[in-house]
Amino acid sequence: MRTVLRGIESKTVYPAKEQRYRGENGELLEVVSDLTSFNRSPAAWKEHFDEQKEKPAFIRYKDVLLPDLPEKCITSLSEGDTPLYPATKAMRDYFGVEKLELKHEGMNPTLSFKDRGMVAGVSWARFIGADVVACASTGDTSAAMAAYAACAGIKAVVLLPEGNISFEQYSQPIAAGAITLGLDTDFDGCMELIQKITAKHRGIYLLNSMNSFRIEGQKAIGIEALHQRNWQVPDWFIIPVGNAGNVSALAKGIRELYELGIINRLPRIAGVQTKAASPLYNSYKNGWAGLVPITAKKTKASAIQIGNPVSFKKAVRELKAFNGVVEAASEEEIMDAKAVVDASGISICPNSATAMAGLRKLAKAGIIRKTDSVVAILTAHGAKFSQATVEYHRAANRFANKPKALRADVAAIEKALGL
Ligand SMILES: Cc1ncc(COP(=O)(O)O)c(C=O)c1O
Q: Which of 105, 243, 299, 348 to mutate to test the pocket of ligand 1 (most atoms within 8 A of CB)?
């Protein structure tokens, strides 16, 4: 085996196939794979990825994601190969940067980046022989896990904060046949319970982001973006943050490419939270002080309504290594940013818009310079959040495109169109 699980603080090593989510001392774990054992030069790595172009992204990048996973265990729904859109002029003007690209992870099979994690997590579950998988979710994790488990023929159990996720997200695990439990608590409450359940019932395999194998799959987002840019590193990646797993995955993937010599410098990373749930931002503002969990407030960016981010320590370590920053955006800033991106024809969710709102603030503050190149990670599709979108446009908001209800006749339509 090339891969082990390792404690992020004590560096204690555990066998990769052991079903474990934390070290003996309770610390977070990470997957460490000896990638030098492939004996490839940077040019050979690039050639290898190019040769795999026709394969699903997870298989193309498998050697740097889960090199020990046998191909026969992979359950893929053809996730990945998401678009890297150049920003329109309207977006460049509004967000304040001249070189902006948008990596739209909402264009995955279940409409979020979580598919990148679940192709890895569910495939790994098959590899170690698990036949029940489970997660707590703010909506997207459960949608992805349920779909991949259904595809693999594995039973899925999801815990959701009842009333705190969108209707579309709620429909996804139900439709895919998962046992769907809506609990009268918030996400952090669901997370605590699923950890207790999976610790007690070892036959249930936990697929939240504290499962380090799932996180390895999410590294593909940054790796694929860099591949699409012909390995030219932008000055910045910008990404929304909730439980802090995805920002950790993004950084880990990029760092490993750098260590292999595939890229020749590191970008900076900006994580953005909603002001309704900003414990990582609070830590950053206080000189990377320790985590002070909060009770997250209700927010349109409900997928990142998380007050006690499980991957906090990993995220801080990575953000420090990338000279990273953290920003927080208000509800108004988030929904205005969403409207600007949506108006270009690229439909995004409020969580993705949180990253965009943060970008605007960081550009305004001069932390991201106008001439810096920026890749923004859009994490889910706007189609999952139709209620938030319609409510925004029906009300007196800055970029509202107010729909009109009319009498069904020609004269009324002519009047409305000014004809
Ligand atoms: C759409 C969306 N964006 C961003 C995030 C944040 O990712 P993470 O929780 O890994 O920080 C999540 C999940 O929590 C999400 O569903």
A: 243
